[in-house]
Amino acid sequence: MPTSSAPVSFGDRRDTGSVVEAGIAVSWNQSEVIAVRRIIIETAKDILSGSTSPVEGARTIAGHRFKARLEDDPDILPFVGIASETESLPFGRERAHWQARALAELQGKINESQAWALTVASTHCQSLVARSGSLMRWPDG
After folding, report:
1. Which of 37, 81, 98, 124 pairs with 130 at a CA distance of 20 to 30 A?
2. Whole-model pTM?
């Protein structure tokens, strides 16, 4: 995986540009970080417009947080919570692996989770979109 060629300094630590977080190789290549941040911002816009499910969008945003170097961002952390709280529910392609009866029985819980996720996510989606200009610049580290 390509990484930045120059070491990055973090106080008294130096880093060569790539780390492993939670078993995921994380690159600090500028173009990769910016590309993943673009995915996060577009997903936030899609949640707000209703073109992406709030739960699926939260899973996408949470899943990209390390590569985007936003793992501690206060507007990203609520998406981690949404993803965690709804991990047992089938969304998207997962639904193809579930029996129709089981899906029907869960539909009420799925609908409730979607509404809750939208309530939690909306403000943070708006904030991410409002901050998109600064998020699309190379992180200072």
Report:
1. 81
2. 0.78
